[in-house]
Each structure stands twice: as C-alpha cells, then as structure tokens.
Fold this protein.
Amino acid sequence: MPRGKVRVGVIAAAGKGTRAYPRTNFIPKPLFVFENRTLLERNVELMFKVLGVERVYVIVGHLKDQVLAEVERIRGRFPGKSIETADWTQRGLAADVANLRDRIDGDFALMLGDEFYYETNHAAMLKLWRARPKAQAMIAALPTALVSEIRKNYSVQLAGTRIVELVEKPENPPNQLNGLGSYLFTSRYFEFFDSTPPSSKSGVIELTQVIDRMARETEAHACTLKGRYFNINSLADYYATTYWIRTQKFSSYRVSLIVPAKNNATTLPDVLSDFANLADEILVVDMGSTDRTVELARKKGARVIEADPTTAATSGPRADMIYQALRAARGDILALAPADGSFRTGDFAKLLEYLKDCDMVVGTRTTRQMIEQGANLRPFYRWVNVFFGKLVEIFWWNQEPRFTDIGCAYRAIWKDSFARISGELVARDRTYLLEMMIEIMRYHMRCIEIPVSYYRAYGSSAQDSLAAQGRYMLSVLRLIFARRFFKR
C-alpha cells in the first residue's frame, strides 16, 4: 500500500548548547547565522520545500523568547504554511518528540535545529521512504573520512539500506557512515518510545535507542545523502563551518573600499592607484577639502561622497559621512583605508583572509616591528590605544576580545554584519572606529585584530594639542561606559 504524504515536521531547537559557550549564553544555537540566515530558517525551509510538510512544530526551551521571535519572523516567509511551537520536556529529544503525540497524525519528519545541511539531497530520503512502505523509521547518513565526526554523532551499520545497529557517540565506529539528525517516522514511534528504557549513561531515553529497537523489531532504513553536513556542537564547529562556506564562495564576493579624505591631494592618487586592482568599487568620502582632493578622486574613477557645505568646516573625521558611505557601498565586503597613505595593500590580503573567519577584522598599529621608520605613531599615543583596548577587553570579557588598538582605520567588515549594527552607530567623531568594534561585540559577533604595517610620516592624531588629546580620551571613556552600562 503506498504511503501517505509526510505532512508534519518537528525541529528540535530547545537545547542549551553548553559546548558552544559563551555565545550560547546569549544566542541559542538554532539562531546561529550562516550567509545571513539562521539555522532554524534554513531547516524550516528544508522541511517545507524539500520534504513537503505542511506544518512544522519547533520545540523551544533555552532562550525561548529569542526562538519565538525568530519563528514569528520565519512565518512571514512561508504563507499558507503552519509553524507552531512546543515546550521541551527537559527529558531528552526522544521525550520532546513523544510529547507531541496528540498533535501528530500519521508519518512525520524530525530534524535537529543545530545541524547545517549544505547542498544535500534530502529529496532522496523522501523517495526512499516511499519505496520502503514497511519501514517504520528512516534516518539520513553521510559518508565521512573523519572518525571524529562520527564520534560526535552516531554510527550506522547497514545491510543494504536496512539498519542493523545504531550506536550513540561510538568510541570506535565500525565504518565511515555518519548518522545525521534528519529522520522520518510513522506514528509507531510513540509505541516504541513508551517501551524503551532510559539509557544507563544519560538517564533519559535516547532517540538512537528508540530507532535501534524499531530496527530490530520492525523495519528501519537509512538513506545515504550527498553534499556537506556540519554539526554545530561548539564554537569551533561554528567558526570552521563559516570559514569553509566563505572560502568556497570568496572569489564571488565584491569588495568596496571606503577612503575618508580631507585635503589629501598629495597622497590620495597613490592610495587609489595602490588599491585599484583589489576593490570592485572605491568611494572617497570628502569631508570638506579645499584642495584638489575631489577632482583627483573623480579622475581616478572613484565615487565621491561630499560634505554638506554648511558643515564642511567641521574638524576631524566625519563619522556620519563615513557611515553613510558604508551604507551606500554595493560590495559584500566593506573595507576602510584613510587617504593619507598610512596603510598599503601589502596587508590587504591579510584582512580579507581573516574576514573568512569572523565578522570584522581590524588592524593594530601597536606592533613595534611593523611601524615603519619615519612613521610618527609616538609611544604615548600607542600605549593609550593599548590601554583602552585592554579596558574594552575587561568590560566585554565574556565575548573574549583581544584588542591593542582602538583607533586604527584600516579594517574590513561584512556588509551583512555592518547592516546588523548599523542602527546603533551614532558617533560623529573619530570614536566611530571604537564604536564599530563595541557594537560587533554587543551583537555577539566576532572581531579579530591583526598586526598591520603603519607608514604615516605626515599628520597624526598624536600631534594634536594636549587639550585635544584629553578631549578624545574623555570621549572614548564616555563611549565605553555608556555602551557597557547604559545601553541594552
């Protein structure tokens, strides 16, 4: 007799994810973002578009309010589909699923909310399910050359497609088949759950125990998928996955370079020539130049954002204009480099490489071996930056930052990451550099600092008057304390 349609899907999104500390203190793992989409959104889409379910239950628990808010957002993407939530039992995933028995009528799909499937063929799983009408359960599996991946999940022994044995987190996997967190069940799942004893190790009924009993006493099958799979157990898993995805696509990303300038006619042409072949577009932010800066920028083919003539005389960098340029840029990656020749392209490849691993990369000018001869970053100014960098580390210790320079303008950030913090960026002076770093941390994103060579031998904030330096340090302190203690 042919099977009916799999109409119900269940996504487990309740766990605490303690191995992904400290991020999971603030963000549940199913809400981790890959390519600007959460894991939960991706798996809901897989349920609806590939497995063809009509209703999805999301099991919620840890940081429940955040997951509920994400569910509400996702609902808007799937009109005509039903997404409901159910509370966890705190007695394990198998019990969480069993708790839904009154809401599930017929075959259903189950998926773990912290697993990321990349170009997998889940449709093959549904096809095999229909071809095995006697099967009471089906799992997805994927070949892997890494035994460590199987040890984190479960091993699968098969006779053809039929399951012989499943072992949760095996020390010595019998083969290279890694069990995944995608499942199909008939309603007999609930019968087998009721008759399965708790695990002697965990004290709860494990899902693999239930499936193993179904395999022994009825029929259970496995579908071997193609594609890539990532189990996001820890922060290391999250970063490794992010790096892998970005590396695959990195050549397709567009780079926008933003160059703040004011009366830099003598240095700007060299800066634009130096970076011309590394950026897909260059935006020169002119903050009231009275020399040929704008003319030369346009001659070099750069887009120019000019200051309002009524405010062009404002001293110092115009953070509002720089933010305007970052928002207007078309690239996937946004880079900043000043127009005075302080930095060169020798370090640009480093910025981009580290950007594969984080949300923003900032340079540090405090590595003495990389301060070129003649550059005027004086010891006092260098140590002021180190002091404030360490103060930020202390105040945001749970984000594990490492900073030694809060004022380096050579940096790169993903456009998507900038968009997430954009609404919080209100600085109007050079504290904007620190403001960006703080907001990345406040949004629980990753900022990495790397040493860069510093070449500037003309014009430096270190040459400001003592009064100007004092005002700057006070503004930095105000920013740090305001964002740490008074902004939520």
